[in-house]
Amino acid sequence: MPGGITESGEPYSPFVGLVYMFNLIVGTGALTMPKAFATAGWVVSISLISFLGFMSYMTTTFVIEAMASTNAQLRWKRREQEEVHDSDSTSEYSDDDVVVRGRSEPETKPILSVQRSGGHVDHFDIVERVEMGQMASMFFNKVGVNMFYICIIVYLYGDLAIYAAAVPISLMEMACGNHSCSAGSVKYNDTDPCWGSVTRKDAYRVFLSVFTLCLGPFTFFNAQKTKYLQILTSLMRWIAFSMMIILALIRIGKDSGKGRPAVANLSGVPNLFGVCVYSFMCQHSLPSLVTPISDKKRVGTLVLVDYVLILGFYVLLSFTAIFCFDSALLHDMYTLNFTDNCDVLDIPFLRYFLGLFPVFTISTNFPIIAVTLRNNWKTLFHRDGGTYPWVRWLPPDLLFPS
Question: Transmembrane segments in this chain: where (predicted)?
């Protein structure tokens, strides 16, 4: 999710910041983690996810340090400008004029602020939200800034590609699968029929087209006032995750688990690597997340606790999955395992809720990421005067909708 839940910049406690970061990191990646665990083996999976989680934590601390340095640099520049302005204003008058002006004109600077200015000021305190693009423009040259935006754009394209695949897959499985309790767990092929002569692959393409036509036009608008929408999706997310973990634990506790996971399988490492990297991505949203925290003395500890909790959550979700379900029958989207197996969940409403859960949550985030991608493209090709050098012969709104 490209940004924190709060949009107004109102301060909140470190505990709330911990919750926001947890909700930000844990998302769609958690739904694909169990399949990757089963493919690579549980020992290899724990080792790799722990290493990548540590590297992501280190990168997060680097970004926070860059935010602090940026705030200090902006504060020093502002102070230098004020000193130059004060020196210019006082040089225009003689000493007598200054005395007369000081007696006749009202004070323009509060006494308390003057007294406080002599005290200790932490120039590295993160009080001003500085986005990643602004930091790149301050510390990098032109080539570095362009490379930064290219990296962000590639990540956002990958994010949108995952979302655009997850929603049609979930809809296709719900529309084409046999969800009667007598069916049991069945492994389908893409060429199996869905509706008469329409195969499952064709149904996927139909749902993909519908998804694109329905959510694509939102790219032409701006994503604002999404606080309550994100709160709603976060609530649905934790209801679904809690249900899946509890249901899997109940089945394992009854000694009815079908999973016999492998210890190690190096052929599954590439898939696991991609899932783990995506599952710890949060650095692009740190300015919106860290800046409103009221007490930043223990931000490093807060981030470390968050990563430890997230790592524990991923391991708990994946372990309950690989020991509850047969590894060969695990779906790419973990929620789909609860829609065609009544031994785990036999309540139709809850089965459809879990099966359609990715559709609801991803559909609300897709427009936000699409708008973010559009804005990064506009910034990358923007020049002074509002022109785009090599696309001047095309209307800008055609390439960069607004």
Answer: 12-33, 39-68, 139-158, 203-223, 235-252, 302-329, 349-373
* pLDDT of residue 206 exceeding 50: yes
User: 14-92+123-181+190-399 domain in CATH 1.10.10?
Assistant: no
pLDDT digits (tens, 9 = 90+) for 337-395: 888 777 888 888 888 888 888 888 888 778 878 877 887 787 777 655 555 555 555 55
- The partner residues of 293 in beta bridges, in order of sequence, read 12
Q: Which two structure tokens, joined as six digits, stand for 241?
A: 């995750």
Q: In sequence order, what are the beta bridge partners of 12?
A: 293
Considering only CA atoms, which of 15, 132, 14 is closest in space to residue 70?
132
Give domain limits for the chain: 14-92+123-181+190-399
pLDDT tens by residue, 259-308: 888 899 999 999 899 888 888 888 888 888 888 888 888 888 889 999 99
Buried-state track 317-343, b at ≥16 Cβ within 10 A, e below 16: bbbbbbbbbbbebbbbbbbbbbbbbbe
The closest of 39, 23, 22 to 273, measured between CA atoms, is: 39
